[in-house]
Amino acid sequence: MQSVVCRQQLDETAKEVETMNATGWKQVRLTVMAAVSAGALFAAGTLTPTNSGLAPLTILDHRVEVVINNGFAMTRVSQRFSNPNDTATDGIYAFPLPKGASLAEVSAQMGETVINGEVLPKEEARKVYGEERDAGNQAALAEKDGYMRFEFQIANIPSGEAVDISFVYYQTLSIDTGVGRYLYPLEEGGTDTPEAQSFWTRNEKVTGSVTFDVVLKSAWPVADVRVPGMGGAQVTAEGEGTHRVHAEWKGGSLNHDFVVYYRLADNLPGRIEVIPYRSASDQPGTFMMVVTPGVDLKPLSGGADYVFVLDVSGSMRGKLAILADGVSRVLGKLSPADRYKVVTFSNNAQVVVDWQSAEPANVQSAIATVKALQVQGGTNVYAGLQKALSNMDADRAMSLVLVTDGVTNTGVMDPKAFHKLMKQADVRVFGFLMGNSGNWPLMKTICDASGGFYAGVSNSDDIIGQIMLAKSKVTHECMHDAELKIKGVKTFEANAGWIGKVYRGQQLVILGRYKKGGTATVELTATITGEKKVYSTTFDFPELDTDNPELERIWAMHRADEIGRLADLGMMGAEDAKGVIRDLGTKYQIVTDETSMVVLADQTFERRGIKRRNRDRIAVERKAQSARAAQPVRNYQVDRSKPAFNLPTPSIGGGGALDPFSVLLISLFGIGAVVVKRRFRD
């Protein structure tokens, strides 16, 4: 699994010219021998190697349908392409990979022929696709490029013909400080290497219509829904628990993210929710447990130390001005009792402002230094963290603010080294990952080792939701030594257990399996201001519950990511991890680093003897989705009769002066939103 080490770019292409006996016309087929390097991520769009003599496919229409329902989202993307070349060609469509997304369906239609996808081990899927493509048959292949993107290859598109492709993915969502956020990633991440940029010709323009339709279903009252930068978006409430968002325009670019925020009502109870799925008594069940603590975490008082660790590598070009402005504003808001240090890193790291108190004269000098920063060189994240952790004062609370795209390409790149480094210091790490190409597996390693918290940054974000993701986490105490246990029912392959720190407003999302139904006790223990606290409740895992079959794919994708992380940290053999990930992908029909989805006609699957596991799984999921659409929203809270928490959950606060980290977040998240509407329609 690729988490840190980038794949090398292979710039070979091959042209094949062959005569089609049946029709007499020549077909020129371009076969891409290797994908773009992991250091490069394009915006959503079609790709064709430069100097191939072929134009990229034209994107005619782009439609996105989203259903957000009690903790997870289903996204269906339907897109129509046309081949503008005078010969038949293969096409490639690239799409930034949403964090934790499990790709479940791919289908395509060319003329009267509809082809559908089945997941196979990666090499087998590539072989089948290549053979069918070379035979002149209609076929497609969907793959996952590490943490970077999905890539769809479509074979043998006739000249002047249109092809419709549709794909579906699932992902978990969480509420943070009363705010939910759904991101549809389209924007180029800003980390392209010059070699990658010169290798590909891309097309991200839509000549027809772009449409977004979002259905939001929530068991808890929704106070507000917001789509930043989309002034023409229509938001309507449809009865209790359902909101709809619709946005549509003609033409434009697929190079800007689409973000939907939804804010829950204030004073909702702390709670534990369990969404189960178990299809038969002889099969294990799957569950998603969402823990929303309602506990009293007080504001921190007294002076504190802050170290800003800033990425000034070449991949931050275009982002550094926003970053420098944000940090400068923060420095101006610190109190004289605070201290700060500023570290930058590119190929190496340096302290550009050493520890000093936040007195006015010091601050003005530091601001001038930060605003004069320039981008250069590679990305040595390890050196930046190592420099930041030097010369600490053990008697003062320290927060480390890391702002980077995380695409490390020089210095130490082994995740095990990052894990060991962060375990050496007791710091509160707050990571801000800039752009869709941000290396979230590396940031997760850094933050998990230190009990930290991280958030992604999109230019389409605004301050309403994103400030809440981090502001009170920095300015309030947190729960320490948190641990979650489930007793009474045998659970396995879950991410429960030791958690470490839990910050104000943070939800815990636990995915796992259970052997059979029965009464269980969930217990969250943590230390707050030196005192051990225990929060627990009792509930029933059902013997049968078939409402949410998608949970199996969501769990399997999460499990595959976790296995890959264990391999990265040296806690599991690489070959063993690949085998487990491959088995998860084929059994639950998800696209992983070890599996791909080959898309063929029904008769081709039959001729090749390929089992239709995905077709059967899709039928079960669609039946459940239809049933849920016709029913009221289901509330999955399991601690109503015996509440685990006795306080409301944190929500958006009222007015008052902006604290330093609010200013930083406004700068990082707010500036980009001003240009969203214009860029969508360029």
Describe the structure.
The structure is a single chain. This protein is α+β, with helices and mostly antiparallel strands. It has a domain of 178 residues: von Willebrand factor, type A domain (Rossmann fold, 3-Layer(aba) Sandwich), CATH 3.40.50. 24% of the residues lie in helices and 38% in strands. It contains 14 helices and 34 strands. The protein has a 14-stranded mixed β-sheet with strand order 14-3-6-10-9-34-8-7-11-5-4-15-18-17. Strands 24-23-22-25-26-27 form a six-stranded mixed β-sheet, sandwiched between helices. The protein is globular, with a radius of gyration of 25 Å. The two termini are 36 Å apart. 51% of the residues are buried. The N terminus and C terminus are likely disordered.
Shape category: globular
> Please, what is the average pLDDT?
83
**Poorly predicted sequence stretches spanning 5 or more consecutive residues:** 1-41, 462-468, 654-658, 670-682
- CATH top level of the domain at 318-475 and 652-671? Alpha Beta
Q: Class by helix and strand content?
A: alpha+beta
Proportion in helices: 10-25%
Number of helices: 14
- Spatial sequence of strands, sheet with the most strands: 14-3-6-10-9-34-8-7-11-5-4-15-18-17
**Roughly what fraction of the amino acids lie in strands?**
35-45%
Largest sheet: 14 strands, mixed
- What would you give as the CATH superfamily of the domain at 318-475 and 652-671? von Willebrand factor, type A domain
CATH-derived architecture of the domain at 318-475 and 652-671? 3-Layer(aba) Sandwich
Radius of gyration: 25 Å
Would you tell me which CATH topology of the domain at 318-475 and 652-671 applies? Answer: Rossmann fold
Report, as a whole number of angstroms, the end-to-end distance: 36 Å
The overall strand count is 34
